[in-house]
Amino acid sequence: MQLILYSKPDCHLCEGLQEKLEQVTGVAFSLEVRDITTREDWFQAYQYSIPVLCRQLDSGEEVLPRLSPRASVDQVTRLLQKYAS
């Protein structure tokens, strides 16, 4: 599974989600982190909602449900398991 994390520098919520994703085990995925400040279309789409986690599909991207900043690694793992199957 290919995941995309829309983020921006110095965003503690983005950094927190990325750290949790890096701790997930038992779900095979690759993670691409996209800095929304590098492209105007990304910035316009996500400036008020980062971090945004998406799953890459053949037909485009699917935005995954937003997790609470207090979500545990187990909760992140369960979300990914749901979308990996």
Helix-strand layout with pairing:
Layout: E1 2-7, H1 12-23, E2 30-35, H2 40-46, E3 52-57, E4 60-63, H3 73-84
Parallel strand pairs: 1-2
Antiparallel strand pairs: 1-3, 3-4
What's the CATH topology label?
Glutaredoxin
Look at the helices and sheets and give the structural class. alpha+beta
CATH superfamily: Glutaredoxin
* CATH C-level category: Alpha Beta
InterPro entries: Glutaredoxin-like, Glutaredoxin-like_YDR286C, Thioredoxin-like_sf
Protein name: Glutaredoxin-like domain (DUF836)
Q: Can you characterise this structure?
A:
This protein has 85 residues and is of the alpha+beta class. The protein has one domain (2-84): 3-Layer(aba) Sandwich (Glutaredoxin). Helices cover 36% and strands 26% of the residues. It is built from three helices and four strands, in the order βαβαββα. A four-stranded mixed β-sheet has the order 2-1-3-4, with helices on one face. β3 (52-57) and β4 (60-63) form a beta hairpin. The protein is globular and about 35 Å long. It starts with a strand and ends with a helix. The relative contact order is 0.27. The mean pLDDT is 96.
